[in-house]
Amino acid sequence: MKQMLEHHRYALTVTWRRLIGQPFSFLTNVVVIALALALPLLGASVLVSVQPLTQHVSANPALTIFMAPDASLDQAQAVAQAIRSRDDPVVLAVRLITKDEAYAELRSNDAWRAALDVLPDNPLPNAVSVTIVANESMASNADALARQWQELDGVAFVQLDSVWVQRIEALLRIGSIGLAMVTFIIALVVLAAVFNTVRMQALALREEIAVARLVGATESFVRRPFLYQGGFTCAVAALIAIALANLALVPLNEALGGLSRTYDALFGLHLPSSLSLTLYMLAAVGLGAFSARWSVNRHTRY
Q: Is the whole-model pTM more than 0.90?
């Protein structure tokens, strides 16, 4: 155990000496990898930030069940209770909206107040608003539920904007696929950058590696400094990428702030959770170590 720790300490010392010996090469690689790693972070920030907004607007679609004009409030409550009692996993929330609540909400809007003043009484029916889960099959789920609820006693019709739901569904799917493709391309860029750097160092140290093998150095002993170099380079690059992505979100949020205020909403882009960022950095470190191992194995066989 003590010998293993000593080997790792020696590998870290050698890695640090090599990085200090070539600071320009190290900084260049870090900047290139950091810029590449920042792109998926920005894409992920957009997706994780937009998802709650789309849930608030319509990505988690809200179906509105309008009761017949002559249906009583008790019938509307019975419809809401019937939906809750089914305990459907697709249903997130059920809310009863009385005609008085809807009328008061419309009157609070200046654009509707004048129009309502000319009406003799409240023309609005009681309604039930049902929010369902946003997933890949939410459009078909919404259609199926709408058909079921249409048969309930006192229901006049169920309003569902299927086209809008399908558009949101398609946009989220396209965004996820696009982010996965960008992440894959970035992984190849990081792989190539670390591979090429380790290749040049391995070729420059061919004689030193050959001597080390002659005196009994194992393959693990030879590879270990290169693995640390690849992992450390990507770790520093990932930290810089997180900082760059966070800085890039500042002007974006300033621009979005003015737009969101026009819709009386608060919306801003933010980075993924700390756990996601930690996993992202660990994945970058693993990719760097894998690329370094592949390169040193390929270019030190002689």
A: no
- What single letter denotes the amino acid at residue 146? A
Q: How far apart are CA 22 and CA 71, in angstroms?
A: 80
Per-residue pLDDT tens digits for 44-87: 887 777 665 555 454 456 788 888 888 888 888 888 888 888 88
**Structural domain spans, the chain:** 2-56+169-299, 62-160
Walk across the sheet containing 155-159 and list its strands. Answer: 91-97, 127-132, 62-67, 155-159
Write down the CATH number for the domain with range 62-160: 3.30.70.3040
Closest by Cα among 198, 273, 278 to 230: 198
Q: What is the CB-side half-sphere exposure of residue 172 using CA atoms within 13 A?
A: 22
Residue identified by tokens 């029916």 is 125
What letter does residue 49 receive in the DSSP assignment? Answer: H
Cβ contact 174:78 at 8 Å: no
Instruction: Dig out the tokens for 121 from the structure.
Output: 């009484």
